What we know:
The protein is α+β, with helices and mostly antiparallel strands.
Amino acid sequence: MRRMPSVQCLTEDLATFAAEADAWLRREPVLHNVLLTLVADRLSGDLPLSGGERFVRVVDGGATVGASVHTPPRGPLLGAVSPAVAWALAEHFARAVPPLVEVHGPVPAVAEFAERYAERAGRVAVPGTAQRIFRLDAVRPPVGVAGRARPATGADRDLLIAWAAAYAAETMPDGPSVDAAGQIDARLPHGGLLWLWERAGTPVSTAWLSRPVAGVVRISGVYTPPAWRGRGYASGCVAHATRHALNTGAAACTLYTDLTNPTSNRIYQSLGYRPLSDAAQWRFAVP
């Protein structure tokens, strides 16, 4: 049995969590970028609160030692916490919410959580998606890619929604259908957060940016329809979006890759992204 420190898990409202957990989250601005943007987007109103979110801060003697955000239907997302704090969070979620179907977070914290949660909740922990977190400080654009990048506009909204759904269906065929309209609508008014690569006036690839938090911008939503793959369009789009983020004030960019996709891992490294840490999803099944 793992010894646990005298930690306490506090469920807080968004404003309190944002104020109290912010300094701890910003100690690792790249590893915690998703958590930081989940909070920032809801504080700003870009993404409205659904009412089902759970903001959990872990304290030890009054000091923040961990954090997690739960935005159903997705499972909780953990910060880069110690094994003992991961166990404390698992105990909290086993007591406090209906049975989880998954959890996400950095390795090894997420595996520690999954082990303890499965034990306490009477579930079986099953490894899910394995990811790698990359960081970039200076971009190396590809050469010889035909076409150009442009920022997406409201006229591209339906295309972006359709491409997001196609990406989800391809990468998570057993998962629920995805409606990315909310995320797209949150980005469009800001300009420069949604990018398209065009060839002869036809959109052939896309990449999304998050708003900067703690000096870090995250690349996501990278998708090229099958008919246009293998021509470097995604590389061109990601490089341009990355350069735009750095030129407009970001100190670093980050992105997540699927470890089972060696092509994307190789491409991003050729642009200047370097491995920082691993992350994973664990699923919980009924025995």
